[in-house]
Amino acid sequence: MSIIGKISATEKNPTSNDEFMFWLDDKAEVRPFDIIKVKNNIGNKKSVTYALVKDIYHMTDSTGHLSNYISSDFGDVDSEPSTYRVGVTYATAQIITNNNDVYMPLKDGVGVEFADENEIKEALGLDTIKNPIPAGFIECTDGTSVPIALNKEFLIGPEGAHLNISGISGLATKTSYAMFLLQAIQQKSKDTAIIVLNVKGDDLLRLDKPNPLKKDEHEELWRKSGLMCIPFKNVKYFYPFKHDEEKFYSNTSLNKNALQEQYEDNSLFNYIYTYEHDKQNLDLIFSNVDDPNFTMESILNFISESSDFANLSWNDFKEKLSNYTQAGTAKKSGNEITVQSWRKFKRLINKSINNSIFQTERSNNSKYSQCHLSDEVKKIENNSVYVVDIAKVDEQLQYLVFGDILKSVYELKLGETGRNEEDIPKKIIIFVDELNKYAGSSSPKNSPILKYLLEITERGRSEGIVLFSAEQFKSDIHDRIKGNCSTHVFGRTNAIEVSKSDYRYIPKVYTNMMTRLRKGELIIQHSIFSTPLKIKFPFPSYYQREKDKDE
Amino acid sequence: MVYDLKKRVLDYFNDVNIKCYQSNRFCLDVVHLDSYQDLDEQYMPNKIWEKGNKNKTFININSDIKFDLFKYFLDGSRYTYKVGEMITSSGKYMPIIAGQVAAGISMRENGKMKKYSLLRKNLVVIYNLINDLDYEEIKCKIEAININNVKFIVERYKGNESVDRPENLAIAKIQSIMMELELKMISDIVKSGQLASDEMLVVDGSLQFMNKGENNEFDERMFKNVIGISKSFNPNLRGLFKDKTTEVASILTKLKFGQRTPVYKLDVANCDKIIGAWYMRIRPEEKVRNPLDGVIKIEKVAVTEDEKMNGFDSFIIDNISKALMEERNVTCYGSDARWCNHIYPMYLTEKMLKESFISAEYFMSLF
């Protein structure tokens, strides 16, 4: 290890117990997020202070641009000086920790070095983490690459829970990273079940198939992380039912061959909703409808309680609604809901329940692979992965399906299913992309999905329900949901986003880095790390998308 | 000897019963303006001391070729402080002056400046006329002091205080010690064989200083690859031109950017050495404020017999001038009021020396 620079404590920029500056050797290169070390000896007490590089500057003795202009022969761009201006590159660094509990500021002139692998582990407390969940690598400019791990108890409870990933789409980083963490959890934990929602394309619909693009060096990185480069195990896929024999009655963008494989493996299911089984979930369809006067809620209550609405099929239900929308029926039937409200309700719900997932009754014919999603969720077992495809259903129905899952998981964990408690997975992780749809900062206050999500993020930690979520813009997400996440991951984002108040407490240099992250690079904030870290993670171990084959 | 932390430097005077007052302490450099180094200089009337250019007033030195002849840059620097007053046994009331002096050489490698060598001294200078034994005792005690690696050297100043103020006499003593340091540095670098005709040493200021210290004798051969550059010079010098009353500045205002004057032979009092001097303008005259801004004075010692007899080779003077033109960038514009007449490596050397000094507050508090 060689010295790359020295501490610089000046009148204007003294060192503190929190931060310091150091000048750099002319040939030294550092980047923000590099981890450095400095000896901090106080009397006979020897210690090492570790710090994270923040801003890097270069300055010269030039008093201004005019001075530089004049020094270039009064503005001659071709002028070459005989002597280069004396200049210095210096950097600010944020102290992470001291290995001997020294809180004294560093003294001027002490040498600064890159920390090596073991020292980085010591600096971040990686060497003392119990139940580590591998979470990628830190790479320093000097070539040191250190696998990092998150504390399981802080990632999925009980100490802390919930993870949120934000970043612009198109770089495939958010989902890949979530899948990497989930894979790590599946490998390192035996009492956890995972439910993944596929919201677009077929990216998450081959989780149990190995990645055809996988190379030896990718496997090496997985091994270095302490993991095997394998696809997910025990995966079941749930698709919306559609009357389409060719595609195994699944409404999905996954191709026929893949579906056939899943069908043959008995991992393909098509979910349906029947009136009798699911009428109490109809409120979920209205998750994003503003209902300031609670008229929709009144109607839904009326439907669930009135004997008039019992034992129907969806078609009967529609007919029944038509009756209620006739002028004068409200008074006749004795309820106080106006005809106008019934008409609005009918208009909103008709559009949705025309979808083929709404069936009169579940068929036992195995070729249809029909199931009630809520029943399946309540049967989820340790170490299994459920992938629920909602990409091809419209927005209102996505609310229904996601809400149904949340509700079922909640019921399962609250012991309302009669299952033996020891068989129920201790932790159930739900991963959903585009969280802003379900828990946006402008979601209606009485949205039932928002209610469930708040319940999960605020109390789910103790129940063992964990939310892994992703979205493009963190600022779009409901404050209480964000506030309850113990792990935040930031992918590349734009300058407008980082100017929002969510990023106020992240040092400017890091938010600026967020606008320049490359594919596969993320910044992670985790409860046990005192500072954000820039990480990379291994190539996906599962088959991501169809075009992968051709690349 | 262990330094008594309760004692200050001046307390040692009282030890030998010299009455000493810790009067108002202040930095003298703020109060006294240095005079021109070449104040008492004279030119040999109308003596152009180069082989060519005998009838020219100005010579063009513009060149498109990049020249780099200078590798080493020497400067000396000093701060002087009045730190107290003492009463001698004969009843004289004389100031005690302290000073920090430094001389240093920086070197340039691939356009980047580095320290080559640096000498530092802290001085206490006291009036000459005190008892020799008392002086020896004070000197011995003060020179044994070591406060956080700050050490002192005690010297005496002499001169006629009825002609000049004693402060100036003391400053002159400190100045001469600084010059000795500079001379020593030149001598050391020459002996080490570092200098060459394309790796010359540039000295800040006039080369005549060698004549002013107590070392009147210097070996002129040391100056083979040395030139001196003065940022400022006495504008009222006469004798360069046929019209003997014309002062040098009145002609130099007409000097254009990229021109030099011929080399004139200096008449240095009490010195048998031949020194040639010429002026050149290194900044476009229309871009600067004052008529003499950007005009520098260069001095060179005649070393060879030929130079002593017939004057300098015009080709060499031209080359040195061309190389100096190249030194005009970058500038210390904004950092130093004398930027027009400064060359940047010299400015950095000066900065290196100044950075080696202890702060005035701390230094004065030791007395």
Question: What does this 3D model show about the protein?
Answer:
The complex is a heterodimer of chains A (551) and B (367). Chain A has 551 residues and is of the alpha/beta class. Chain A has three domains: 3-115, no CATH class; 147-270 and 366-549, P-loop containing nucleotide triphosphate hydrolases (Rossmann fold); 276-353. Helices cover 29% and strands 22% of the residues of chain A. Chain A is built from 18 helices and 21 strands. Chain A has helices spanning 65-71, 117-124, 152-155, 173-188, 216-225, 256-264, 275-278, 295-305, 314-324, 329-333, 339-353, 373-377, 395-413, 436-439, 448-463, 479-483, 495-498, 508-514; strands spanning 3-7, 19-24, 35-39, 48-60, 87-98, 111-114, 132-139, 145-151, 163-166, 192-198, 235-240, 268-271, 273-274, 358-359, 370-371, 385-389, 427-432, 465-471, 487-490, 521-526, 533-536. In chain A, the strands form four sheets. An eleven-stranded mixed sheet of chain A has the order 15-12-11-16-10-17-18-9-19-20-21. In chain A, strands 1-2-5-4-3-6 form a six-stranded antiparallel beta barrel. In chain A, helix 13 packs parallel to helix 15 (448-463). The radius of gyration of chain A is 29 Å and the shape is elongated. Chain A starts with a strand and ends in a 15-residue tail after the last strand. Chain B is of the alpha+beta class. Chain B is built from nine helices and 14 strands. In chain B, the strands form two sheets. In chain B, strands 1, 2, 3, 5, 6, 7, 8, 9, 10, 12, 13 and 14 form a twelve-stranded mixed sheet that branches. In chain B, strands 4-11 form a two-stranded antiparallel sheet. The longest helix of chain B is centred in the middle third of the chain and has 26 residues, at 166-191. Chain B starts with 10 loop residues before the first helix and ends with a helix.
